[in-house]
Amino acid sequence: MTTPDPILIKVPEEIVTERLVLAAPRAGLGQALAAAVTESIEHLKPWMPWAQLAPTVEDSEAVMRRMQADFILRRDLVYQIYRKGEDGRAGRLLGGTGLHRLDWEVRRFEIGYWIRSSALGQGYVSEAVQALTRMAFESLRARRVEIRMDDLNLRSRAVAERCGYELEGVLRQDALTVNGEPRNTCVYARIA
Fold this sequence. Notes:
This protein is an alpha+beta fold. The chain contains 4 helices and 8 strands, in the order E-E-H-H-E-E-E-H-E-H-E-E.
């Protein structure tokens, strides 16, 4: 079977859960993104190369527009995580998640995530990952979904385990830390 051109694949632009709205990026949200990252810079800095300095609103707007373009082109499927308001619509920006390292032919995707400091420890990331996992398998016909992280990132590992991902192995010295030191990568996965 031939894989269709990814740009033609229908991907939901919004995923709604009990407490969250996961929404595809759109122009005009740079200020909200900058505020969330700036609040969270200290807890993101050890793990996220893109979170070493607090971003300007302009930088965040440019990032948001690039993510929107990549979403449309099906090169990277980033979603912002919003707290769901009483009206059921997106409220405060809590963080980000998405399907990355897309392999449309194999139907293999990797989930990434981050959450703002004030939303830590409330189960939002697990809720978002479970929703994104369901969407990947049900809507995108995924065969494999992975979550990878630094083996020292215990919070991230706990999310993968809570969401039913199985540790397949640890890739020794397979990447670099944000400081350029060798690090190990845990590979968690679920298969169809």
